[in-house]
């Protein structure tokens, strides 16, 4: 039983690190986009807003990868939890979880939480872009 508990603790540690990375990534994406918006306003250069699309999409893709990996490790955790005590081999390979097809990267990209968070960032960039275009058209 000790081996099973230790193995589950190893897997839980990986899950916690992936969740922490995802949390930090969300923070960095907000900070970076805010900085680009500030540069666009300060320098009166709307090109900084266009640049914001690239990191916003990159952070969305990276965050979905973390969520995908976290879901795979949660499946591994559940699989190990159901194993007999003498079958514990401390495997940390999630490829055995990919075979059943319940978790895909595509589903992670469009999960409700990521779609809400990163989608709202993209929508904010679109609104700021439109506001700058309208303001630029009125001044010119």
Question: Overview of this structure, please?
Answer:
- It is a single chain.
- With 140 residues, the chain is mainly alpha-helical.
- It has one domain (2-139).
- It has helices spanning 2-42, 47-51, 53-82, 95-98, 105-109, 112-139.
- Helix 1 runs parallel beside helix 6 and helix 3 packs antiparallel against helix 6 (112-139).
- The longest helix is centred in the first third of the chain and has 41 residues, at 2-42.
Descriptive tags:
single chain; 140 residues; mainly alpha; elongated
In the predicted model, the low-confidence regions spanning at least 5 consecutive residues are none
Q: Strand-residue fraction?
A: under 5%
| Shape estimate | elongated
Helix share bin: over 70%
Number of strands: 0
Question: What is the H/E string?
Answer: HHHHHH
Task: Count up the domains.
Answer: 1
Structural class of the helices, strands and pairings? mainly alpha
